[in-house]
Every structure is written in C-alpha cells, then in structure tokens.
Write a structure and sequence with these properties.
The chain has 719 residues and is α+β, with helices and mostly antiparallel strands. The protein folds into six domains: 73 residues, Orthogonal Bundle (Helix Hairpins), CATH 1.10.287; 242 residues, D-amino Acid Aminotransferase, Chain A, domain 1 (2-Layer Sandwich), CATH 3.30.470; 127 residues, Nucleic acid-binding proteins (OB fold (Dihydrolipoamide Acetyltransferase, E2P)), CATH 2.40.50; 84 residues, DNA polymerase, domain 1 (Orthogonal Bundle), CATH 1.10.150; 87 residues, DNA polymerase, domain 1 (Orthogonal Bundle); 67 residues, BRCT domain (Rossmann fold, 3-Layer(aba) Sandwich), CATH 3.40.50. It has 25 helices and 24 strands. The longest helix is centred in the N-terminal third of the chain and has 24 residues.
C-alpha cells in the first residue's frame, strides 16, 4: 500500500504493520513541519492540517500503545533550537497543550479533571478561559528585578537565547518594581498585531524585502533575527499568561496573571474565570464570534484550572499538563457524495465500515476515504444509544458533509437528506464475514448492551484474521522477526506448497527444516536470494528465546496489548504459571479467577478474553506447537528500592479523604507496590477508609494487616 493510501486509511482498519509504518511516516512528516514552523518560521501546511497529523498520530498510539516510538511527536514539544543561537536550558520545561475540537470534548476534559480529583458529579473547579494567541512562545527570566535572559520554547527543554532581541520589545520591561522575588520567570507569547503586520508587509514590499505570509510568521521571524537592530524595527508585542521558575505569589492562575499586569506586563483582557462547563463553552463562542474584530490572530481558547493547588495535584503528562487544554476553532468541512461502503476485517475479526467518497479537497488535502466507525454510527445511533445527527442515517449515494483536521481521520459528520433520491434505501450491515463467510455477531457487553463492533466468528479459519494475527505475531513489539513483514507474511500464507506455507506461529519456526526437505527452495521465488533466505532463517532462530511479555502479546489475545501483556507477565512470572492459572481460572468463581481479577489493571473484560482464549482447544494446540519451538523467559516484577511497601500487594478500600484513589494508586506503584482490586491470600496490606465493607471483612478473616489512610500516609511519608 502506498504512503498516500495508508495516510487515508481509517485508524480502526490499520494492521499492526501498517500502524507501525504510518507512525514512522507521521513522525518524519511532523518533524519536518515542526522544523519549518518553529525553526524556520515558514510553515508548509495550515494549523488545521498540522493538528490533524498530530491527532492521527495520537489515535494510532492509543490503539497500538506498543508501537509508540522514541521520537514520537506525542513525546516532543516544538523543534530543536537553531544552531544560529546559543542554547538555554529551561529551569522548568515549556510544555505544549492538548487540543480539543468540540463542545463535547470540553465536557469530557472537565469530567476527566473532576474524576482525577475525586470530586462529586456536580462539583467542578473554577477554570480560566483566555484567547490562544497565534505567536511565538517566550520565557523571560529576571534576576534581582532586572531582565537577565530570554529564550524561545525550542524543544521544550532547551530554547534559543534571544535576550538581545527581547530587550528591543517595548511591551517587555527591562526592570521590575521593588519588592518582586529575586528570581522571576515570565512566560507568554510574542505576536504582531494585524494592522502592524499589514504595514510591515507594505514597507517590506516597497523595499524589495521578504513579505510574510501571516502575522505569526512575521513575529517569529522578527524575534529570531541575528541582528537585534532589525528586531527593533519590527512592531512586536507581548502577552504574559504563565510562569516558570519563581516562587508562588498567589493561590490562583487568574490572580497570578493579574499580578503580572501590576508589574507592567501586558495581559489579555479577555481572560475570565468560568465556574462551569457551560460558562467555558459560552466564553469560547463569544471569542469565536469576536475573532475577526481582534487586532491579533488567535486559533482557539485555552482553559486552565484556576486553583494552583489543584494544578499541582493534577500534574503533567509527558508533553502537556492535565490541568490545561486548548479548544481550537472549527476544522474545515466539505460536501461530497458517498459512492460505496467497504467492509474491512481486522486482526480481531472486527468488521469496520469505510466510506468510499467522490474525491474532495478538505483542508488542502484530497480525501476519498472516511471513517464510518461502526454500524450504529451509520444508522444514526451514538455510543450512548441515543440518536446522533438527529437520527439521520447514512446511505450509499447520499450527499454527505466530510470533516478533516481536528479529527484523527476524515469522517462523515452529517447527511444532506434534501438531496437524497427517491430510490435511496437504508444500508444493511453484513451479518456474514466478507472474507470467509462465517457469521459476524455483536457480543453482549457487561452492561447488557451489544458491543458497537460486529466481529467475524471464523477465528483461525478466517483468512483475514489468520494473516493479520501472523503479522501481529512477527511485529516489532511481539517477536520482532526481521525480514518477516506484512508482504512476506501474505506471501507465505498464500503459497500452494504446504512445505513452505505459514499458517500458524509454529510454522514460522519449522520453516527452515521444512524448506530443507522441499523440492522447491525459497531462493527460487522472485524477491528471495540466497542471502535474504539465510538472513530470514537467522532472524527466526534468534527469536527462539523470547521474553514472556512478548510471547503473551504476540498471541494476539483480544484486549491484551503490550501494557496488559507486561502486567500479566510480571504478575505470573513464568509461562507455566501463567498458562496453568489461565486454564484454572475457567472455574468461576474459583481462586485462580479471583487472583486474575485482583491483578491491578486487569479487569473483568481482559480476564474473560484471556480465559476464553485458553478455553479453546485449537488455541491450546497452537500454543503447544509453538512452545515446542520457543523458550519463554521468566519476567521479574518491578520493585522500588528503599520503600517500606516495595514488592507488597496493596488493596485500597472504602473512601479516601485526603487523596483520590488514582493518586493513592499512583503513589503506591511509584514506591514499588502492586495495587490489587480485591483481597486474596497474596494481599500484604489493606488500606481501609470509611465505608469499607467486604474487602475489610475478608482481610480480617485472612489475618492481613489493615491500616487507615493516616497510617498509610505516615508509612510513606518523605518517599
């Protein structure tokens, strides 16, 4: 598949190998755009197109967490500082913000904050909302009240020293009033007003100089001049909205920014406090409506938790804070015709509908495919079971509205029913697998509703699943067999010669011996030479000893990604222990089933999937054949050093009053403990709060140590 075709393929339909290739392409493409935007001040694509690339990268990583690259854009902020400037290491990283693209996303963001903090359903912290300035991020450090150094964001850790240029910006004071802390680090955005931008371009045009594409490029290019006298001639402005290395002066975000204004820094007068999600969204739409009247460019609204103590509790992800996010302005939409609906079958048997469109340009890119998510989405039913699009279904031949940018991939967001022809009929989702003809069913979920995804029941007899499972088995984060990629798997699977065919994982490891007895050798096939065949056999041989977590992941058990595979490997240690426990867990509710469900991070859904896998005789046969060829290596549990709870299994029960359950769990795991969801003979410690019930009773029955929240905090104090 070409890079262009792969770029348009829905994330839900990507195979593991395709996802790996797509993440590589996205990492390289985003790096080019980061360098153009942050390093050369000359973006090659629109902000919406850039956001779409990042969103697609993030969605693929969420579906395939095992494929996250070391150079992933989700781990990177900005771009490497230019060698033309001296480097400055930020005392505190200058992180980026996650993006939201709809009012519903704002509700989800606020809910995630509330849940993390353990607040009630009707409780929500106050947020600030302010315009997201489209300029260049800057950090300015004052020492003893005098401007000492100024740096661009750079890659978030190291920026460019632009101190001499910053001293020429009238909005930025050289000295601060008496009484300020000895160290003050102000962060904000350098920008250029629209009127000033137009006047500058007129002057540059008259002088035969460079004409800038937009105010952001003009501001960034002006600030990053090697000659400060050129910067001094450019009408740069500044908004202060954050801080870095400095003592806390106020208790809220809003009051701290107002303090900056008292010191002489410009702050945005559209920054407000919002006591509710409705107020946040209303302010966003007010700013959106007034956007054209502002004399500076903005591309959205930034929301921040106002209370600084809550900000500390929420903390940070790898490249962004949990307590802040950016609500971007709407993506571009276009109208086109839905020509067909194609059903693709994935590794787990999922039938995914893909819209085949009359090609249309959306956000500067020609789109011919779009996601349709699942059969309920086609019918006009959302994940909650309630109508979406006011219940309008999607039909072949419809005129549809396609949205790109801000969404992971292009998607159909609505239908123009006025243009629907008289012969139009509702789309009937197939109940038979298009790849093998087996029944395709929707499983019942734990809450009694049907799963949104329809799946083929063919299992290993389904060629689509069989091939995809083999691709997964040989992939980078499973067995990582060099030279056995997607094309090679498809080739070996389709071969007519049984002695060279690969249909099961064990067939990979018996290939060399079978090939040696075959009249037809691999070197006789196009694309294979003596050297490539030798290298392939060597790569296979090198994987006969395999880490336990890689083996578990490689089996392709539903719901068991790389993270869950590691959790299971650490919990059970050896393959024999793991397999015996999974077979024994089929006896519910027995001790093995309880032990499996007590493993933190392994809920009922994952437990059911693993037990069901080992309950199938053909799966056990396939595993037995594989284990005759490979040697799984034991995996030790992670244990922290110098911690009184390291290596212990801890259960939290009842209400925690001084921290949320998420915070307690994160702290325990950081100190090397294993957090379980239920009490068993292997539990070492139970932390019981008010309202503790059956878990406390069982701990008492088993003679397990029980302490309250205060005792827990005392035990881990200072760690």
């Amino acid at each position: 598949m070409s890079d262009q075709s792969l770029a348009l393929k829905p994330v839900e339909s990507l195979t593991l190998e395709e996802a790996q290739a797509e993440l590589g392409r996205l990492a390289a493409e985003i790096a080019v755009h980061d360098k153009a935007y942050h390093g050369a001040d000359a973006p090659l694509i629109t902000d919406a197109e850039y956001d779409a690339l990042r969103a697609r990268n993030l969605a693929i990583e969420e579906r395939f967490p095992e494929l996250v690259r070391a150079d992933s854009p989700s781990r990177r902020v900005g771009a490497t500082p230019s060698e033309a400037f001296a480097e400055i290491r930020h005392a505190r990283p200058m992180l980026s913000l996650d993006n939201l693209f709809s009012d519903e996303d704002v509700v989800d963001f606020a809910d995630s904050v509330r849940r993390f903090l353990g607040l009630g359903a009707d409780a929500l912290p106050v947020f600030t909302a302010e315009p997201k300035i489209d300029g260049l991020s800057l950090s300015i450090r004052y020492e003893g009240g005098r401007l000492a150094v100024a740096a661009t964001r750079g890659d978030g850790l190291t920026g460019e020293n632009v101190t001499a240029n910053v001293r020429t910006i009238a909005d930025i004071p050289d000295t601060l009033p008496a009484g300020v802390p000895d160290v003050v680090e102000i962060r904000g955005e350098v920008y250029m007003g629209r009127k000033d931008f137009l006047a500058l371009n007129e002057r540059m045009r008259a002088e035969g100089g460079k004409v800038f594409a937009n105010p952001r490029n003009a501001a960034a290019g002006s600030l990053r001049q090697l000659d400060p006298t050129i910067t001094a001639k450019r009408p740069l402005r500044f908004f202060a909205y954050a801080w870095g290395d400095m003592p806390r002066l106020e208790t809220t975000q809003y009051d701290t920014v107002r303090r900056f204004a008292d010191w002489g820094f410009p702050v945005n007068d559209l920054m407000v406090r919002c006591p509710s999600v409705e107020a946040m969204i209303a302010h966003y739409h007010r700013i959106e409506a007034d956007r054209a009247t502002l004399d500076y460019d903005i591309d959205g609204v930034v929301y921040k938790v106002d209370d600084l103590t809550l900000q500390d509790r929420l903390g940070f992800r790898s490249r962004s804070p949990r307590w802040a996010t950016a609500h971007k302005f709407p993506a571009e939409r276009a109208f086109t015709v839905l020509k067909d609906i194609e059903i693709q079958v994935g590794r787990t048997g999922a039938l995914t509908p893909v819209a085949k469109l009359e090609p249309v340009t959306v956000g500067g890119v020609v789109v011919s495919n779009a996601t349709l998510h699942n059969e309920d989405y086609i019918k006009g039913i959302g994940q909650s079971g309630l109508p979406i699009r006011e219940g309008r279904d999607i039909r072949v031949g419809d005129t549809v509205i396609v949205q790109r940018a801000g969404d992971v991939i292009p998607q159909i967001v609505d239908v123009v029913t006025d243009k629907r022809g008289p012969d139009s009929v509702p789309y009937v989702f197939p109940t038979l697998c298009p790849a093998c003809g087996s029944h395709a069913v929707r499983e019942e979920r734990g809450d009694g509703r049907l799963d949104a995804v329809r799946r083929c029941t063919g299992g290993l007899v389904c060629p689509a699943q069989q091939v995809e499972k083999l691709k997964h088995f040989a992939s980078r984060n499973a067995f990582d067999i060099e030279g056995l990629g997607d094309k090679q798997i498809e080739f070996f699977h389709a071969l007519e010669e049984p002695e060279l065919r690969i249909r099961t994982p064990a067939d990979i490891f018996t290939l060399e011996a079978r090939e040696a007895k075959s009249f037809k050798r691999l070197r006789d096939f196009p694309g294979f030479g003596a050297t490539s065949v030798k290298n392939l056999f060597a790569a296979i041989e090198a994987r006969r000893a395999i880490a336990l977590n890689r083996l578990i992941f490689g089996l392709g058990i539903r719901h068991v990604g790389e993270t869950n595979a590691k959790i299971l490997a650490r919990a059970y240690g050896t393959w024999d222990h793991f397999q015996e426990a999974m077979i024994a867990a089929a006896d519910k509710p027995g001790e093995a089933w309880a032990e499996l469900n007590a493993v933190d991070g392994i809920g009922t859904v994952v437990a059911e999937a693993v037990v069901d896998f080992f309950a199938e005789p053909h799966n056990r046969d396939a595993v037995a054949a594989l284990l005759a060829e490979v040697r799984p290596e034991a995996m030790e549990a992670l244990v922290a050093v110098a911690s009184p709870v390291a290596g212990k299994t801890v259960v939290f029960t009842g209400s925690l009053e001084k921290m949320t359950r998420d915070e307690a769990k994160a702290t325990a795991e950081r100190l090397g403990a294993k957090v379980a969801g239920s009490v068993s003979k292997k539990t070492d410690l139970v932390v019981a709060g008010p309202g503790a019930g059956s878990k406390l009773a069982k701990a008492t029955e088993l003679g397990i140590e029980v302490i309250d929240e205060d005792a827990w905090l005392e035990r881990i104090q200072g760690l």
